[in-house]
């Protein structure tokens, strides 16, 4: 009998605020240009914290240093008939450095933007995910959890401490 087990897509997101503005990326999607927190999928053999550092670097060309876990978020996305996905987003907040010289933005990322919360709210229809705004709102509300709130079992890595890939 075929399996019908539901499996969510696991993503990570970096929520970065500096002087009242939040770092977003503008990216090409099947639905046109959309705004999002720097975010992407968790890959096999990496912790969520490693994934968010990697994704932020790929999408912003800036090194991201996580400082706190912002939260876990679930959202259902049904853009077209027959395309029904649920996303589990693991969001971190932290800081970024200056853009790294010679580092290109990931394919599909058009540019990075620093927007005030009211600018993000005003462009809610352009957000790739409703979770992008919710993460900003939670950051503004002061939500912070310790980084060690996400436990990583040693089985994620092989005996040499290297990522499984």
Can you give a write-up of this model?
- The chain is globular.
- The chain has a single domain, classed as Alpha-Beta Complex (Nucleoside Triphosphate Pyrophosphohydrolase), CATH 3.90.79.10.
- The model has no long low-confidence stretch (mean pLDDT 93).
- A hairpin with a 2-residue loop joins β5 and β6.
- Helices cover 18% and strands 39% of the residues.
- By secondary structure, the chain is of the alpha+beta class.
Order of helices and strands: EEEEHEEEHH
CATH class term: Alpha Beta
Structural class: alpha+beta
- Total strands: the figure is 7
Shape: globular
Q: Mind summarizing the main beta sheet?
A: 7 strands, mixed
CATH superfamily, called what? Nucleoside Triphosphate Pyrophosphohydrolase
Low-confidence stretches: none
What is the rounded Rg? 16 Å
According to CATH, the fold-level topology is: Nucleoside Triphosphate Pyrophosphohydrolase
Overall mean pLDDT: 93
CATH architecture: Alpha-Beta Complex
Q: Any idea how many domains? A: 1
Please give the alpha-carbon distance between the first and last residues: 30 Å
- Report the sheet-strand fraction: 35-45%
Query: How many H/I helices?
Result: 3
Approximate helicity band: 10-25%
EC number: 3.6.1.-
Enzyme class: hydrolase
Cofactor: Mg(2+)
Pfam families: NUDIX
